[in-house]
Every structure is written in structure tokens, then in C-alpha cells.
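Progress narrative, Year 2. Work on Mannitol dehydrogenase family protein from Blautia celeris advanced from sequence curation to structure prediction during this period.
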Amino acid sequence: MQVNELGLKNREQWECKGYSLPKFDRAAVTEKTMENPFWVHFGAGNIFRAFQANVVQNLLNEGVLDRGLVVAEGFDYEIIEKMNRPHDGYNILVTLKANGSVEKTVVGSVVESLTVDSENDTDFNRLREIFKKDSLQMASFTITEKGYSLVNGKGEMLPSVVADMEKGPEKPESYIGKVVSLLYTRFQAGEKPIAMVSMDNCSHNGSKLHDAVFAFADKWSKTGLTDKAFVDYIENPAKVSFPWSMIDKITPRPDPSVEEILKKDGVEELEPVVTSKNTYVAPFVNAEECQYLVIEDAFPNGRPELEKGGLIFTTRETVDKVEKMKVCTCLNPLHTALAVFGCILGYDLISKEMKDETLKKLVEGIGYAEGLPVVINPGILDPKEFIDTVLGVRIPNPFMPDTPQRIATDTSQKLAIRFGETIKAYQASPKLHVSDLKLIPLVFAGWFRYLMGVDDNGNAFELSPDPLLDTVRPYVADVKLGEAVDAEKLLKPVLENEKIFGVNLYDVGMADTVCSYFSQMTAGTGAVRSTLEKYV
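Result:
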């Protein structure tokens, strides 16, 4: 049983093993897509394979769509060369359900796979051809938040961006430079309309994409490298739109336990590929069953009926409310709390933490008691029901191989949004008081304790990557378990850092509470557990 066109000809062999297969005529769909593509997606990673590609497959199966997807990978070309093409664009989606069942789907909606490589004339010219087509309605993106940045961590413009801005749209090197070059091709073909839809998991993602695109268009137009009217085209929402969206689906790294399930079924050549850019990709993706994709309904060239596949189309204001509901209250803060304490308490899976009554009570308190009173109901998703699903179905799912160590990555960049916004809302409320918040400062203290790199048993552990580690870790470097600590003296420069917490913790009256918690958590081995049990 091979994951490719030839291996899937024996449908009965796959179906008797419990696999759902594409129900549409893939050859006919491929032909129509090649002639009149409607959707090109940039970013061939796990979230795309598990979510957007599967939605399109379902709609092809139901006859709602008659064309498939074109995927274009602009960061790691080996994904296309070593995974997509050898498997003829197919991949296996393994949905890991909270009730213990596994759903296996062979996804075949991706009918063309290209590299976004301006040195690869065949692929890049094909992309130019696609961008000239009247039929193209949208280009979407899952390239991570970093993909939209034109600068490095120090705020310096990336060398490839500098070179592209000087050379123009002919053969750009940078990711966004290549995207803008393709947009210029569409402009030259008659200023044809298109929606540029970021589907990355970051706030105001459409604006991030717009700003990066505009920077190139503006520079090229001003220096005469493109037609001056190109900027007007980019800035005209009736021609080019940049909708906001909110996406939510957990797709962890392909897990060996899932690979074993497929091997036992007789599926061959499942070995993951680790590319030269350290991308870990396999012929299968494992994912949770829950998924949300809310998109601002701004499509100047029209759009297919993707709402029939479960996507939600609404206003920009509503997308913003849904984003804030998820990121500031109903999911992300709970994940961060479990990540920090999971690392300290020696957990290797987020799901296992939900069997710990103290940690379960902690995240229930952060979500229901401290977060819900200030969350804005977006109307299309109920915040309490969202938390119910997160805490009752999603996080406890024992088959989701997601780790606290992965989620603890970049925590310093997350605290301001995931907790600071709630603190600000309490400040602004006439009925609520910041002093009522007892669990959020517990997480802040837990983060400082985490930065020591010593677990609750006194054993060293490796901290997850974070751009501020070298900045914040020295403040706790000399703290030893069981020794008296002047937490206020040590931590003050960080506690008053609004960039980290979203507020100055002294100004909001929370600094003393954090220091008290931290002192208690460093009293000796087992002190984190006893502090949690005392206050949760």
C-alpha cells in the first residue's frame, strides 16, 4: 500500500483497512484545476495538509467544488521535491479523536505542487501563469508569523529584502518579494482582482501581509522598477483584498505512534524526511478533530462556497473579536499555563496534565473565573462553549502528542497578549478589580520559576527556545532552591517591563503577589506543587 497514484488504484485494499479515499474523479479535477485554478496556497506544512486540503476534499466529494488546490512552498523546497511529488500530492490525515478512535483519510485535493523558487524557471513561470488567470480567486498563506517579517530580530532589514527592493520584481529572493512579483504579474495582466488571505495563527494577519506587500510595491513604484499604478492596485480593496482570519487546529509533529498504526495497516514508505532546513515532514499528518477558520468576507473576485465545508465568513470586526476570545481568554492562556507548569512538574504531554486535579483546576480558574468576565462575545462562537470544548475535549485528548515543551516556546512573546489584555480589561472595568486576579500572577511567578531550568524535584531541564532567554534568565540565575530570596530586588526590572507583560506589574498592583508566589515556589523541592495546591 503506497501513498501515490499507482498505490491507490486498489481502492478495496485501502477501504477494508478503514481509510476514506477521494470520491471524485481526480484526473478530471486536475485537468480543470490546471486550466482554471481558483485557489493557490503558500505553505505546504501540516496545518494546510490537515485542514484546508481536507476541507476542499470534502467539498470535491460532495460536488460543491470541481477543482482542487495548487500548493506552493516558498521556504523549504524539499517538502515539494521529497514529499509532495513522490506521493503525487497525496497525504494521509490521521484524526486523533478524544474518545480514542482514529479516523484515517487519504487526502487527494492537492493536484499541483510547486516551489516558489525564482531560480526554478519551470515552477516560477507556472506560478506567473496561474496569477494571470481570470479564474484565480485567492492566494492563501500559512507561512508562520515570521514569514511576513522583512526584518531580523534586531529590526534590521533582511539582506534578501534589501537586494529585492533594489533589483525589482524580475527574480526576487525573499518570500514576500516573490509573492509581490507574482501580484505584479497579475497587475500587468489587466489589474485582475484577487484576495490575499493570510491564514496564519497571528492577530490581524491580513494587515501583516498587506504591510509587507505594500513595502515592496511602494519601493518598486517609487524607484521606477514597476508601473506607478501598481501601488494603487494593491491599495484598492476592490482589486486586492487582505482579509483577516482566525485559525485554530492543533497539528503536532508527525508522531511515531501514528506511524506504527499505518505500518500495521500495510502502508509503505512512511519514513519522515528531515530537510536541510530542519523541517520534519512525513506522508501523513496527525491532528485533532476540532477546527475553526473564521475569515473576513472580502473577496473581490468572488469565492467558492467554502462555508459548506465549515469555514465561517464574517466581518473584520467579528474576526477580531473571535481572535481576542481565543488568544486572550479561551485557549492560549490555558495552554501557556499548562506549558510552564508542565515543564517544571515533569510532564511530557499536555493531555496528561489534565489528569492532574490541581492543574485542571488552575486552567479552569484562569478560563472560567478570571477570563470569561471580560471576554467579548463575538456572536458566531460562544466563549463558554469554546472553553468547554478546549478543556473537555481538546486538551485532554490522550491521543494528541502535544508537549508542554513545544508550547513553552517563545513564552516571553506571548504573556502580554495571553494575560496582559485580561489585566487591562479588569483595569478598565467599573465592577472588577485587578486584585481579584489570583491565578494569572501565579502563572507569571511560574514562568520566573521555569526560567531557572530546574524542575520541582531539583533536576535540571532544557528551556524551550525564546528570543529573550539571554535577557531574562540572568535575573534568576543565582536563585537556589531552599535558599532565601529577595524576589522583589531580583525581578523588579522584568516586572515593570510592559513589553513582556503588557502592563507594568507595579502600576497595576500585581508585582508583590508575583514576588510572593515566586518566593514560595523556590522554598525547596516540591515547593511548586505545594504552592499550586495552596492557591488553586
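Residues 108 and 266 are 19 Å apart (CA to CA). The chain is about 45% helix and 10% strand.
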